[in-house]
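Extended Data, panel c. Modelled sequence:
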Amino acid sequence: MRLFYAIEFEPAFRKMLWEQATCLRCQVYGGCWTCAEHLHLTLVFLGEIPHEQLDSYCEAMRQAAFAEVPFKMEIAGCGFFGRKEAVLWLGICNPAVICRLAAALRAALRQKDLAHDQKPFQPHITIARQVNLLEKEPEWTDKKLFYTVKQVSLLESIRENGRLVYRTLLRSNLGGS
């Protein structure tokens, strides 16, 4: 099972986010654009996890989510990782609270001695992969978007009929609400 913890967005917000991000399409060329239903913010990538360890990963997420409270996230600006065949992303204006949530998840994983990706956390929402940038850096709308984060999810990444699909295995409310 290929798993990760993430902030999932409600369908109406995903649609609005995707529509706002369309202004970036004319600023880059090529690439594989994230479809609206796949927009999310990865908190911790877990990787390939044996099915028999699933309960432990669920419990670690519940433990970390219970200790945090809902918060408002501001999405504004864009950027990219790499120059050629880059990852294009939307930025987070108040990353400290999201970083705290990601750190709480990692701490719960370490406490249970569970494997997870050790790369430094950089909060972002991937809009497209393998894009090629034009002469200037892409610019996103000045409109700021806000989203209230109330829960964290455990997602499985699978291929169905050649398409990438994210399947929600568990959602835990922040603060136990």
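The chain is about 25% helix and 40% strand. This feature is highlighted in the accompanying rendering.
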